[in-house]
Amino acid sequence: MLNRRTTAALTATALALALAGALSGINAPTRAAAAPRAGHLPPVTLDFTKADGTSGDVTDGFAAVKDSDGNVVGTEYNTCAKPTPDGTKMLCTGVLDINDIGQISHSTVFPVDPAADAKFTGVTTGGTLTYEGLTGAVKLTAKGGGKYEIESS
After folding, report:
1. DSSP letters along the chain, please?
2. Residue 93: which domain range?
3. Which pTM was predicted?
């Protein structure tokens, strides 16, 4: 049985997470007192159209992270390398930094020039704050023109 102090602390934490999610444009996850669970990232768009970075066999750069309404809710930072001899695939590692509510790290191997609507899956390697303990898959869909939809699962 939870005492009043524990119940009040859990309630305050849940309210703080909900407020942080509302302010950032992304709903904060619900956390149950009995079984805390890492936050889930709803689908967001990585927009590399205004990105600046380096190019070549190893690239780095960043992208705006946009919610379903097109609002910028964070930044994606990444580094990619062409691991195949023919240069058709890249290994990319990145960090999604969602405005003040957490970061998610991920790694993905995908085609260098993916067709629009090409889908690929990578690995979520961890998270911080709201996303602490998050692991599993990260799903990407190429949208063309330097844009990708990304979602953790």
Report:
1. ---HHHHHHHHHHHHHHHHHHHHHTSPPPP--SSS-----PPPEEEE-TT---B-SSEEEEEEEEE-TTS-EEEEEEEEEE--STTS-EEEEEEEEEETTTEEEEEEEEEESSPPTT-EEEEEEEEE-GGGTT--EEEEEEEEETTEEEEEE-
2. 44-152
3. 0.69
Which pLDDT tens digit goes with each residue over 116-147? 788 989 999 999 999 999 999 999 999 988 89
- Structural domain total, the chain: 1
Domain presence at residue 3 = no
Higher local confidence (pLDDT), 135 or 24: 135
| Residue 112: CATH number of its domain | 2.40.480.10
d(C-alpha 102, C-alpha 74), whole Å: 10
Res 49: pLDDT: 82
pLDDT at 38: 66
